[in-house]
Design brief:
With about 400 residues, the chain is α/β, with parallel strands linked by helices. The two termini are about 45 Å apart. The chain is elongated, with a radius of gyration of 30 Å. Helix 16 crosses helix 17. It has 4 domains: about 100 residues, no CATH class; about 50 residues; about 120 residues, Ribonuclease H-like superfamily/Ribonuclease H (Nucleotidyltransferase, domain 5), CATH 3.30.420; about 120 residues.
Length: about 400
């Protein structure tokens, strides 16, 4: 092939190939490129000023996308310019976004591969080390974040993720309208959320927040009331139902130790069945629960109360929701279900945050979906030390709706 043909194959705007070298045994292709005659525009890489004259020139070798089965390397002739503001600097080339020995489209290919596969697999695919792949992926994500427009924050979600005994908790702030995380913070203290509301948001941005979906963690409530007093607090339905499931589990545990003989054996092993919604059970599972309910009315009553509590969020009028909650609490009379009575007191103590859902219908499932994506990233990457890198990965995953590639071991 002639050099003009290699110029078309390479496809770098403003550059031409003047020399090429192919090694068939090593499967490598090396191209030497320089500016075309009409391409005389020089741009300072520091401040972006356009300059007419070059200070000197040098060659730089970068890895580009492979050409068929040949590993491609491009040797670029670059100029250095003498900028009045920055001094002697290298010219800015769009195909070379960083000082790393890789072209922009090569880094984009690696970054796209990292969206759906683990770093180790991508490193084996491109013949790179794991640390190099992570550095390329981080640069790729930063360029993507800088080039996109960030939407306004009007509905905010706050939740925490348990990371383990050493790192403890990770506070996650997300945008409920776009379904993407906005900020990560260590621990789940009031000072943690104060740092986001005070330093990451301006006074105008805080005034635009109309609703916040949170769990019943007291430090989060105190922080939101201090920095965004106009914001309506809405307690997450999934956390309320989690407390209801825990109450049912306590009733089952108490009945297991109170009963004896065949009744104890019937209650044993029904923990996950009692936590599952009735509509999600098959015929065999429903039959097992009916056998349990026929012998133990306390467990049956606790399960029915838990199932009926889910209807609380179907109302759009505060009065109707409050009447339904009062009727639900009235059913606890003479039942002697201490865990369910404790749950009722908790609901009454957080009544305003529950009723606020009638005023602003926030998408509650977004918070759990964001947490699920973050946990999937943590499992795929076997943990992250850099929270900024993890945040960019989670934002990209939420924006592109990328699905992880599942790899199974061969039998």
């Amino acid at each position: 092939m002639r050099e003009t043909d290699w110029t078309r194959v390479l496809g770098w705007p403003g550059y031409r190939v003047y020399r090429h070298e192919i090694e068939e045994q090593a499967k490598t292709l090396k191209l030497w490129v320089r500016r075309k005659r009409g391409n005389r525009k020089l741009v300072c890489s520091g401040c972006g000023r356009k300059l007419a004259d070059a200070y000197d020139s040098y060659e730089r070798e970068v890895r580009d996308l492979p050409c068929f089965e040949f590993r491609t390397t491009v040797v670029v002739e670059l100029y250095r310019v003498h900028c009045p503001d920055c001094g002697v600097r290298t010219e800015k080339v769009p195909q070379l976004p960083s000082k790393a020995p890789f072209s922009k489209r090569f880094e984009e290919a690696v970054g796209l591969a990292c969206e759906s596969a683990a770093v180790r697999r991508v490193a084996r695919q491109f013949g790179l080390s794991g640390s190099t792949v992570r550095a390329i992926d981080l640069r790729y994500l930063k360029r993507w974040a800088e080039g996109r427009r960030k939407p306004a924050l009007r509905q905010m979600g706050v939740d925490e993720i348990y990371l383990g005994k050493k790192q403890k908790f990770l506070t996650v702030v997300s945008n409920l309208e776009t379904g993407e995380p906005l900020w990560f913070g260590r621990e789940r203290k009031k000072e943690t959320l104060d740092e986001f509301l005070e330093k990451q948001l301006s006074a105008f941005q805080r005034s635009a927040i109309g609703a916040a979906c949170v769990d019943m963690h007291e430090p989060y409530r105190l922080s939101l009331e201090q920095w965004v007093p106009q914001c309506r607090l809405i307690y997450d339905k999934f956390h309320v139902m989690k407390h209801a499931n825990e109450a049912v589990a306590e009733v089952r545990r108490a009945e297991f130790f109170r009963k004896g003989g065949a009744a104890r054996e019937l209650i044993k092993g029904k923990h996950w069945l009692l936590l599952t919604r009735w509509v999600h059970l098959n015929r065999n599972k429903k039959r097992q629960l009916n056998e349990l309910f026929a012998l133990n009315r306390r467990v049956m009553k606790a399960y029915l109360l838990k199932e009926s509590l889910d209807r609380l969020w179907n109302y759009t009028y505060e009065g109707a929701m409050l009447r339904y909650l009062q009727s639900w609490i009235d059913q606890l009379r003479w039942q002697r279900l201490k865990p369910m009575e404790k749950l009722a007191r908790m609901l009454l103590n957080h009544l305003e945050g529950i009723l606020n859902y009638c005023k602003i219908k926030v998408p509650m499932g977004v918070v759990e979906a964001v947490n699920a994506n973050i946990k999937a990233l943590l499992r795929r990457g076997r943990g992250y030390r850099d929270l900024d890198y993890l945040l960019l990965k989670a934002q990209r995953l939420a924006a592109t709706k990328t699905q992880f590639v599942a790899f199974q071991k061969a039998a």
